[in-house]
Write a structure and sequence with these properties.
The chain is α/β, with parallel strands linked by helices. Helix content is 39%, strand content 17%. Strands 5-6-2-7-1-8-9-10 form an eight-stranded mixed beta sheet, with helices on both faces. A two-stranded antiparallel ribbon has the order 3-4.
């Protein structure tokens, strides 16, 4: 199963991606695909050294049109004879493993002034996911960039399901509504998780979401350990939030 974690900026996509991956790793071989071109915190929160960006494996950033026309060649570069495209067969420098066995692969980051947009990274993400072969005991969690750039690059068509994160903001709910409509058109599984929400805010958020026809499938409460880890840039510590994520994973049948 390939699961995208999406939402507006600040909803906690990176943290929730790690929490979901940790829970899934209790039963499956799990990989996180970092397709966010700006946030560099994921490796530190996962407790690993940053792997080399996959965009380097195919020769670096290229023109969008050139990349779009290279799908067959890129799939061939990433594959191993007789095995197809598999994350576990990537050269060691392109994947890092956490203490609990979660693998991390990074698509690429914008780090140079004037280097151009992140479009090539999104194109590579779609090509990789479209051609990726998974065994029955493998799961991939995709940490996406903020907003809906991935919609414009059709990444959703290459996954099995989308988790839309919302927080106590109208913008996050409206972004989730757009993602819901995309998934409906593509016949993809779609779930909504409210993150960093406690107390009476749960009811207010559920009511506002309901007015847009959105059902909240699970809540992750505010966790001071998570906040401190993010502030210090250290390996993610989570108590309550991890338990909430575990409950949600079973409720959504992400664990069979």
């Amino acid at each position: 199963m390939k699961i995208m974690v999406c939402g507006k900026g600040g909803t906690g996509k990176t943290v929730v991606s790690i929490l979901i991956a940790r829970v899934l790793s209790e039963k499956y071989r799990v990989y996180i695909l970092d397709s966010d071109e700006s946030n560099i915190l994921l490796p530190r929160l996962l407790g690993v050294d940053p792997p080399k960006a996959l965009i380097e494996y195919i020769g670096g950033k290229r023109d969008e049109a050139e990349l779009e026309g290279m799908e067959v060649d890129i799939a061939s570069m990433l594959s191993r004879a007789g095995l197809g495209v598999r994350l576990r067969t990537l050269p060691g420098e392109y994947i890092s493993y956490s203490r609990d066995g979660v693998g991390l692969t990074v698509i690429g980051k914008v780090r140079e002034y004037g280097e151009g947009c992140a479009c090539p990274f999104n194109i590579l993400t779609r090509i990789l996911l479209k051609n990726l072969v998974l065994d029955r005991d493998e799961r991939v969690v995709i940490d996406t960039d903020a907003g809906v750039e991935h919609v414009g690059r059709r990444i959703e068509e290459a996954v099995d399901g989308v988790i839309a994160l919302i927080d106590p903001t109208a913008e996050s709910i409206e972004t989730a509504a757009l993602l819901r409509d995309v998934c409906l058109d593509l016949s993809k599984k779609f779930w909504v998780i409210a993150n960093k929400v406690d107390g009476r805010m749960r009811g207010i958020l559920a009511d506002r979401a309901g007015k847009l026809g959105i059902r909240i499938d699970g809540f992750i409460g505010f966790d001071e350990e998570v906040v401190e880890s993010c502030l210090l840039g250290e390996e993610l510590r989570a108590g309550r939030a991890l338990e909430d994520a575990r409950r949600i994973a079973y409720t959504l049948n992400l664990i069979e």
